[in-house]
C-alpha cells in the first residue's frame, strides 16, 4: 500500500478545521424568529443594524447569534388587586405582545432573553392595580369590564413602548369577586331588574287607561253632536225611509194599521 504524500496530511487537517469553522459559522434563523449578532471583538451586541432575519447566515466563528421569537406571543396572567373600597379582586387577563424587530439588539442589550419576567409581567400587574383601584366591585362585575380592559391596555402599552416591546392587545377574560360580594351584587341587580319591569307595567297600564278615557270622551262628544243634530223632521224622514225598505223586501208581509203619536206608520209583519 502506497504511503500518502506528505502534503496530504496538512490538507486533511485544513479540511477538518474548515468544516468545523463552517459548522460554527453557519446559522439558520427559523420562521417567526430573528437573530441578534454579538461581536466578541467589536463592541459586543450590534444595535445599529437590523437583526438577522429568517434563513441561512454565515458569521465569524468567534461571534455569537442570539435567536429571539418575533411573532406575536401570549402571556396569561392571574392577578389579585384591590378595588376602590379595598376588596380583593382577581383579574384573569391575556396580553398579546411581540418584540419590536428593528430594536431587537437594544432589547437584548438592556433586558436580555428573560424580558418577559423583567418587564412585561410587572408592567401588566402595575397597570391592573392602578386601573382596578378606580372602580367598585359592582362596576367591575357588571358595567365596566370593557373600560377596565381598555385602560389596562393603554397604561401597559405606554410602559412597554419604552422597552422595545409592542403590546397588541390586552383581554380581560374573567373577574372573580369574593362570593359574598358577588351574591349581594346579583341580588341587587335582580331587584333593580324587577323594579324596572314593575315600572314598565305601570306605565303600560297608565297609557292604556289614558287611551280608553280618550276613546270614551270621543264617543261621548260624537253622541252629543249627533243628538243635537237629530230634529223631529230628520227622525221622521229616516223612519219613512226604513219603512219603504221593509215594504220592498220580498220576504216581508207588511200591514199598515195606522200611525203612531209621532206620525210614523205602525208596521206589523212576519217572515
Q: What integer value in Å does the Rg equal?
A: 47 Å
Distance between the termini: 146 Å
CATH homologous superfamily grouping of the largest domain: Band 7 domain
Number of domains: 3
* CATH fold node name of the largest domain: Tetrahydropterin Synthase, Chain A
Q: Considering DSSP H and I runs of 4 or more, what fraction of the residues is helical?
A: 40-55%
In CATH, the architecture of the largest domain is 2-Layer Sandwich
Trace the largest sheet across and list its strands. Answer: 3-2-5
The low-confidence runs, each spanning 5 or more residues with pLDDT under 50, are none
- Along the chain, the helix and strand elements come as HEEEEEEEHHHHEHHEE
Biggest sheet descriptor: 3 strands, antiparallel
Q: Which class best fits the helix and strand makeup?
A: alpha+beta
Number of DSSP helical runs: 7
The geometry reads as elongated
Q: Mean pLDDT, rounded to whole units? A: 80
CATH C-level label of the largest domain = Alpha Beta
Strand content: 15-25%
Overall strand count: 10
Polypeptide structure, described:
With 271 residues, the chain is α+β, with helices and mostly antiparallel strands. The protein folds into 3 domains: 8-69, no CATH class; 73-182, Tetrahydropterin Synthase, Chain A (2-Layer Sandwich), CATH 3.30.479.30; 238-268, no CATH class. 49% of the residues lie in helices and 24% in strands. The chain is built from 7 helices and 10 strands. The protein has helices spanning 8-25, 104-110, 115-132, 137-141, 145-161, 179-229, 232-248; strands at residues 26-29, 33-39, 44-45, 55-58, 64-69, 73-82, 88-99, 165-176, 255-259, 265-268. It has a 3-stranded antiparallel β-sheet. Strand 6 and strand 7 (88-99) form a beta hairpin. The relative contact order is 0.08. The model has no long low-confidence stretch (mean pLDDT 80).
Amino acid at each position: 500500500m502506497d504511503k500518502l504524500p506528505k502534503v496530504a496530511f496538512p490538507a486533511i487537517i485544513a479540511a477538518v478545521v474548515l468544516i468545523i469553522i463552517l459548522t460554527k459559522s453557519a446559522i439558520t434563523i427559523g420562521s417567526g424568529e430573528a437573530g441578534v449578532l454579538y461581536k466578541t471583538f467589536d463592541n459586543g451586541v450590534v444595535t445599529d443594524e437590523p437583526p438577522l432575519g429568517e434563513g441561512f447566515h454565515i458569521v465569524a466563528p468567534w461571534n455569537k447569534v442570539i435567536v429571539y421569537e418575533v411573532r406575536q406571543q401570549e402571556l396569561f396572567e392571574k392577578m389579585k388587586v384591590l378595588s376602590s373600597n379595598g376588596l380583593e379582586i382577581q383579574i384573569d387577563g391575556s396580553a398579546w405582545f411581540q418584540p419590536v424587530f428593528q430594536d431587537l439588539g437594544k432589547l437584548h442589550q438592556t433586558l436580555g432573553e428573560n424580558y418577559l419576567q423583567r418587564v412585561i409581567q410587572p408592567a401588566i400587574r402595575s397597570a391592573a392595580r392602578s386601573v382596578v383601584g378606580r372602580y367598585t366591585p359592582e362596576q367591575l362585575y357588571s358595567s365596566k369590564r370593557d373600560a377596565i380592559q381598555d385602560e389596562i391596555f393603554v397604561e401597559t402599552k405606554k410602559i412597554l413602548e419604552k422597552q422595545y416591546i409592542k403590546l397588541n392587545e390586552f383581554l380581560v377574560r374573567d373577574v372573580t369577586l369574593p362570593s359574598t360580594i358577588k351574591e349581594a351584587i346579583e341580588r341587587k341587580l335582580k331587584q333593580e331588574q324587577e323594579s324596572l319591569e314593575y315600572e314598565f307595567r305601570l306605565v303600560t297600564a297608565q297609557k292604556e287607561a289614558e287611551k280608553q278615557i280618550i276613546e270614551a270622551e270621543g264617543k261621548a262628544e260624537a253622541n252629543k253632536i249627533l243628538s243635537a243634530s237629530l230634529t223631529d223632521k230628520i227622525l221622521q224622514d229616516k223612519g219613512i225611509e226604513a219603512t219603504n225598505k221593509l215594504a220592498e223586501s220580498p220576504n216581508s208581509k207588511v200591514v199598515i194599521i195606522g200611525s203612531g203619536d209621532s206620525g210614523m206608520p205602525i208596521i206589523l209583519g212576519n217572515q
